Amino acid sequence: MNATHGRPLPTTIPQYLEQLREALRGADPAMVQDALYDAEEYLRSELAEQAGRDEAEVIASVAGSYGAPEEVADIYRETEVTVNRALRPPRPPKRRSLLGRFFGVAADPYTYGALFYMLLSLATGVFYFTWVVTGVSTSVGLLILIIGVPLLLLFLLSVRLLSLVEGRIVEVLLGVRMPRRPPYTQRDKPWLTRIGELFTDGRTWTAMAYLLVMLPLGTAYFSATVTLLAVSLSLLVAPVAMAFGWTGPGIYLEGLHVALAESWLGALLAFAAGLLLLFVTLHLARLVGHFHGWLAKHLLVRNPLV
């Protein structure tokens, strides 16, 4: 095989990766990042095993087994569809009525994933914020010493690692495609060039900004979720409290108690209000899931460049 789609086969690994990136133009950036990482890993392992052969010969032989760039791009697009169908939970049927769409949110698995993410985000937000603030202050403060530079580099690499971990959490709980491999970097570049790219790559800093902003976002998500769930569930148990003679839901303020359900009619109205608020909370969780998935996609995923 000497050419694919009218184009000559690449003779170097960077050329192969460039053609693969062009063939995947318009695809999900997270998938492109994974494809480039996998391709380079395979090509370099083949080149290491066949150390006595020319790089162009190795790539030509690899094109017959691994595939030419355009063929690999087609395989990745097809595999992406297959994997998404296998991993994603079945979508709930579309409902046309307004009531069906309102109550149908309870049948969407990602609603509960988003709800759990909102609760989890407080813990992750505190950890991310603490890690970034401590890492920046420590590494920058030690730059006057010889240990400061390697410590700063390790910290920036840890930011990339945390962004990869956060991406996996986002994909599992929110259903947004995120990278499953580390960010692609051309590995035959000199070390100084690669270190420089660590500083000049905008995604290093946007990932750091994401980790910082997770603290206020996580606090807001957690507070809203706990408050809305507590209020809605307390209203839902009003009939049960009425049946057993317990103190029903009410407003407590400096020793003053204003009962919201002192009769069966009030208890039933409280139950209806709690049910309505519960579904509003589920819709809010789904909305937050869409927003946060969009935010993570734009701050944690970069378009890989060769």
Automatic annotation (TrEMBL):
Q: Which Pfam families match?
A: Sensor (PF13796)
Q: Which domain of life is it from?
A: Bacteria
In terms of InterPro entries, this protein maps to:
Put_sensor_dom (IPR025828)
Which segments constitute the Putative sensor domain?
Answer: 117-300
Is-annotated flag, keyword Membrane? yes
Answer yes or no on keyword GTP-binding: no
Keywords of the record = Membrane, Transmembrane, Transmembrane helix
Q: Which residues cross the membrane?
A: 126-159, 220-244, 264-285
The protein in question is named: Putative transmembrane protein
